[in-house]
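Write out this protein's structure.
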Amino acid sequence: MLFTKKKEPASQEPMDLDEVMKKYDRESNTRIWSGTPKLFVSILLGTFSLFCIYVTLFTTWLEEFRLTTFVAFIVLLGYLVFPASKGVQKVNYMPWYDILLMVCGTGAFLYYAFDAMSIIQQGAKFEVYQIVIGIVGIISLVEVCRRSVGLPIVIVALCFIVYAFFWGLSNPTIWGKLEYLVHYLFFSKEGIISTPINVCSKFIVVFIIFGAFLERTGIADFFIKISNAVVGGFSGGPAKVAVVASALEGMVSGSSVANTVGSGSITIPLMKKTGYKAEFAAAAEAAASTGGQIMPPIMGAAAFLMADYVRVPYSNIALRAMLPAFLYFAGIFIAVHLEAKKEGLRGLSKAELPKFKPLIKKIYLILPLVVLIYLVGTSQRSIQYAAAISIVIAIFVSLFDKENRITPKKIWESLAAGGQGMITVAAACGVAGIIAGTITMTGLANTIINGIVALAGDKVIIALLLTMLCCIVLGMGVPTTANYCIMAATCAPILVRMGVPQIAAHMFVFYFGIVADLTPPVALAAYAGAAIGRANPMKTAVTATKLAIGAFIVPYAFALNPAMLFIDNVNVFNILGIAITSFVGIFAVSASLEGYLIHHMKWYERILCISGGLLLIDPELITDTIGIILVAVVVVIQILSRKKSKVQSI
């Protein structure tokens, strides 16, 4: 029997997961197509996926032509898929103004695509009609982004454009400013078709399609079942299942909200049934699911951008992210374990645990991931080819599973789902290019860098703190990909100037862009989990932030001591030492926040424990020695006080 602390009311209706996704994930709020129109849109989406695979693998087109054609597809499909507002949608209905925006916006980018050579050769002087075309193109893309991503990123972009137009540009005439702005943002490779869109069209799209195929092989369900079999029977088993399953799912999906809803629909009710409070159950799932974007081998889209910005292979980024990702999930796992011990919660009974033997027979489902890791890790193939080969293997392994066999119909559904998934990421990348472009053209980046460097003086920790605040505040309204692009252009160079290695600086801003999905007041992953668990959203967000404490601490550790990212010629013994002391440090911090180690902790024990834990996470001999002593003192006190209480009870 399960240890049941709290039962759901009998009258409670099951949660509508589609409604949760629509509320907290803009990407799920789509038009309703049926019959022939649905088939037509599906054909367009699938064709777009095939087009992207073909272009990224087999063509050597002029970059301006390739990228503007890609964005033209995004604008066309964006208006076909996403309505102007969240209201009740009419079936097979698209208002005239959406059709007008779609046609004009698509036409603007196609004009650039097919007249690219003459546009490149004409320099910076443009005709009036070309400026109008550029403005229409910018507006149409920004509107697609508003629909698919949300209003906050659009507001940020508009603020930067207004700054550039009224204060940032020195051209004395209004027309001169407008001409320069449109030229820079639309007709050059420094705005919309800059690095973010380039990386998106070359690398990210193939992995999005790969993820769509993996979803249809049943690998997510396999991960949940295998996690249940491995850790479901331990104390607070369902919460540990949520952590392990979300870590595994994170290898194939970088969407924190989608991960939360996908695995949370199973794990959150199980956690509540086991005895976890609703807020804790929802927070544990949200915190674990958010970690998907930092979990190698397939991290969030921003990781591909980082590889391009830092000029290193993606496999290098994934390798360096391994230890921080391990510490992140270890912290959450420890927290749910201690919570279970504190509350006396049991795991699932043997009858409820899935049988391990049938699951082992389906181990072939992970073959696409194994091949992908091998190909990327050994650099035998480009990232695009590795993902394409893995897609073929995903189709092949599905043939051995009757329940999830990928038929020709499912192949097209996967292509269509991949095409739809690209719209949001590409729109965000395009607008991120606009933001980064305005920062570059106005010299705002240098102004910000000089200001923060002057404020921080020679104190790196102050620069890190200010950068963290910028990332979190911006991340509350801007998706991770766009957040990273902005921070890579503004704050990462600050940290580099302060002496932080380039890859550590970029990883720092990457991490803090991600945790915005958990940080109040705008914590979409936490709110989605709260909706599934019928918990208080703000309490859930606060609890999720506490559980994900590793994501707030570890970046400081690798920024101050890059050895954690395997920089500075570290050897195996260095890595083992860093891993062990950092793990103990995360354990100590989690225990102090939970207020439980061997038994309930007193206030001074919690202070000693968190102090020792923080010192251990900084991989230096002096800090490690002091940290171990402090944690050891707390452990001894806990053991002695427990023995004393046992003697007194006798």
